[in-house]
Amino acid sequence: MREFSGEANGRGALTGRVIDRWVLGDEIGRGGMSVVYHAHRDGDGFGQDAAMKILSMTFAGRAMLDSFLRERRILSGLHHPGIARLIDGGVTNDGAPWLVMEYVDGVRIDQWCRDNHANTRSVVQLVEQLARAVAYAQRHLVIHRDINSANVLVNERNRPVLIDFGIAGLMGREDTRTMHAFTPQFAAPEQVAGEDCTTATDVYAIGRLLQTLLVDHTVDRDLRLLIDVATHQDPDQRYANARNLAEDLQAWLDNRPMRARAPSLRYRAGKFIARNRWGVAAAALLFVAILGGLATSLWQARIAAHERDVARAESARARQVTHFLQNLFRASDPDEAQGETVTARELLDVGGHQLSGAFEGDPALRGQMLVLLGNLYRELGELDTAEPLLREGLALADTHGDDNDRVDALRALSRAQMDAGNHDDAIASVERAIGILEELDQVPGPRHATLMEPLLFSLTELGRSEEAVTRGQAALDLARQVPSLPDPSLYEYLYALSTAMGVLELNDRALPLMREAADLGVVDEDSPSSLISLLGTLASGLERQGNLTEGLELRQQALATAERIYPRDHLIRARTLNNLGNTFNRLGRYEEAAAALSRALAIYEKTYGDEAIPRVAAVHNNLGNALRSAGDLETAATHIGRAQQMAGEIFGLDDYRFTIATCNLGNVHRLLGRFESAGSLFRQCLETRLEVMGADHPSVGNAQVLMADLRLDEGKYAEALALCNAAMALYDTIGYDRPRERLATLTRHARALDGLQRHAEARTAFNDAAALAEAAGEDAGSSREEFEAAYAAFQSRTTP
Q: Ranges for the Protein kinase domain (predicted)?
């Protein structure tokens, strides 16, 4: 082919050509080093449209070739909805490299803004989404280096997509040959000067793009300050990265304080009043912020005459809050404290006491303060204190507040009810809040998103997992239809749904949602409480795929984070300890499992007593399994028996979770030599799973393998062999390839053959099991120890 020689360089000269199954259509763009065509290919029952970029060998030198190949390498590692993804790549017959990218059916961002008469808020929303995509690239050590209006397209969903990574680079690997290939209007001073580019270089370009898009708009002081910081001449004075910029853009959209402004107490208090919301934060920091400037900040702006009455009312509110907080913080005054350190918890206690007589003239404000304090107590795990405050706050919101106050109070109350295990009440609170939001036409939306976790979690805890998945999927589908939905809200929908799917072991559907949530970049070390939840969900997905080692690393990271930010007896600590102990169990590290689970149970019992709570039942079950494997069978039987009793009370006898404890209890009875009761428990477990989960569910195979264990102990080898064969056939049929369960089944299969004196077949089965154990490594968990012991016993009897 003569793709780039002589006459072939004319516009559209390659239309109709075929390159490696891709048929080139119209030319859609060209630059000094490459040309881009619309491309299409057909496969088995599908067709695909894309954009093919081909390097012009006529004009390309070594630097351009390196740049082109670098773009291909970089794009191959980026998977984000805001970045055009790489589909294919290769070299033409005459040596011209080409790559195929996702075809973005959209228009340039500046043209889109003009065509749609975008207002300031719409522009900021677009740029905030762009900044999130750039932040994702930066987390993967990629700097774009040429963000401009031509390289950002707005697609049919009204979301920006970043294209053309032609001069992008990896952090710390600058290539001086490409330093001047940029768009001057958007290039940072250090880039123009030929100095090293950093994440702040992309921040500058995003800031300049925002400035350009807003040239004909009215820009308020805060947004002007944001742009000034993003486009500062000194890169050290800009936002450090695109994530920080995105957070400030979102803060501006939410009318919250921004990083861009010096953190003056007056400014933060002003924002607090402006957004009229009481978020959960560290008690001392929040109160100091309000105290420092709440009263005076209301008078900073020039107020139109018709707004003066409202302003005076707000000022009166501010004076009440200031007076309340001044009294509150006297507790930390040296003269009052007398040398003792006053903790945030103690300040809350003082605040709760003083609140009993405060704000009598403004019941709506009093309600907001009650919800704030209740939420803070909930965050500290003090549920008995939190719920009465939240109920009183809700009552005042109902009688004196507005719809926003009611939704905030119901959301906080639902989370407290969820944490306390009162899941029916939590669902009722969420349903009422959703009803209010529907009347306000705010479903889906940011407030609705925050209700998904208490709703779906409580449904699953009540055994209504399928309903949880159905409702969560419907909510996510609606959310995806809102282009302006902030990424943090999309994260809430994705996280809640993927967690519910995990309960039903819908791994193929759950894991992509988890990864999408993680890739949004809204959860990191700066939001540790959310990071704990995300780490736990990702760990569960990996473990369900058999990746126990990777799951353990995430569990340990989650626990370290929880121990850093939560008090010793907080429920989040208990939850992460329980999950970690369960992973230790599966890896065969029973002493570590028992230690973690005992700590979790102590926290739960301190909070709930002996009440039947799903989380408490789970930790009893997991602790019993650890003790069983460690040889303490009687204590194990006590814990697993309590888990079964709780599961029956909570979920009923026909629920899958009841069968888990039933099977585990049967296993302990087997080890104790109580074969008759063990057989009864195993049969109950298997029959219930067949009825509830269906014959093609892997849990049916797991129950068959446990029954096979019993038959082996009883010397009924033929029955054991039949049960193992049935389990393996089921696993093969449904593609269930978790190494721990498969190795356990192969080991019992070999033992049954050995018991039937079919030694040659048994040896083959043991060899198959050895190969699986070798391939699985640590992910084989406790099944490896069982196999090694059984194989050693077989070898000692059959080897001359």
A: 22-348
Domain 107-261 CATH class label: mainly alpha
CA 563 to CA 582: how far, in whole Å? 18
510 vs 527, residue with greater confidence: 510
- Higher pLDDT pick, 333 / 75: 75
Q: At what angle do helices 452-461 and 465-479 cross, to 10 degrees?
A: 160
Q: What is the pLDDT of residues 743-797, one digit of tens each?
A: 999 999 999 999 999 999 999 999 999 999 888 887 787 788 889 999 999 998 8
Angle between helices 242-254 and 487-503 (to 10 degrees): 100
Residue 592 has pLDDT above 70, yes or no: yes
- Residue 101's H or E segment, with its range, is strand 97-102
- Residue of 533, 583, 541 lying closest to 558 (CA atoms): 533
Please check if 53 is assigned to a binding site: yes
Question: In terms of DSSP bridges, do strands 22-30 and 18-19 run parallel, antiparallel, or are they unpaired?
Answer: antiparallel
What is the enclosing helix (H) or strand (E) of 542?
Answer: helix 528-544
Q: Give the DSSP letter string of 386-446.
A: HHHHHHHHHHHHHHHS-HHHHHHHHHHHHHHHHHTT-HHHHHHHHHHHHHHHHHTT-SSSH
Place of tokens 């861009």: 260
- Taking alpha carbons only, the member of 374, 323, 330 closest to residue 348 is 374
Work out the pLDDT band at 496, boundaries 50, 70, 90.
very high
pTM for the predicted model, two decimal places? 0.48
Q: What is the pLDDT of residues 85-134, one digit of tens each?
A: 777 777 777 777 888 888 888 899 999 999 999 999 999 999 999 999 89
Residue 9, pLDDT > 70, answer no
User: Does 334 score more than 80 pLDDT?
Assistant: no
Cβ-contact 367, 393 below 8 angstroms: yes
Nearest to 708 by CA among 724, 696, 697: 724
- At how many degrees (to 10) do helices 221-230 and 242-254 cross? 180
Query: SS3 for 72?
Result: helix
Q: Tell me, rounded to whole angstroms, the distance of Cα 250 from its chain centroid.
A: 19
Burial class (CB in 10 A: 0-12, 13-18, 19+), 695: exposed
- Mean pLDDT (whole number) for 234-262: 83
Confidence of residue 247 (pLDDT cuts 50, 70, 90): confident
- Return the minimum-mean-pLDDT range out of 540-544, 592-596, 662-666: 540-544
Fold agreement (361-442, 617-798): yes
DSSP bridge pairs for 83: 162
Residue 33 is given by DSSP the state S
Lowest-pLDDT range of 284-288, 569-573, 718-722: 284-288
Please answer whether residues 358 and 324 qualify as being in contact, where contact means their C-beta atoms are separated by less than 8 angstroms: yes
**Distance in angstroms between the alpha carbons of the first and the last residue of the chain:** 70
Q: Where are the domains of the chain?
A: 6-102, 107-261, 267-358, 361-442, 617-798
CATH topology of domain 6-102: Phosphorylase Kinase; domain 1 (3.30.200)
Contact 620, 646 (CB under 8 A): yes
Domain 361-442 sits in CATH at 1.25.40.10
At 444, the pLDDT band (50, 70, 90 cuts) reads: very high
pLDDT of amino acid 528:
77
CA distance 460 to 618: 14
Please tell me the distance from the alpha carbon of residue 625 to that of residue 619, in angstroms, as a whole number: 10
- Closest by CA to 29, choosing from 21, 38, 39, is 38
Determine if residue 52 is left, alpha or beta; phi over 0 gives left, psi from -120 to 50 gives alpha, anything else beta: beta
Residue 46 Cα to chain centre, angstroms: 32
CATH class of 617-798: mainly alpha
The CA dihedral of 101, 102, 106, 111, to the nearest 10 degrees, is: -30
Q: Can you read off the two tokens belonging to residue 489? A: 């809200």
Distance separating alpha carbons of residues 695 and 687, to the nearest angstrom? 10
Neighbours of 62 (CB within 10 A): 8
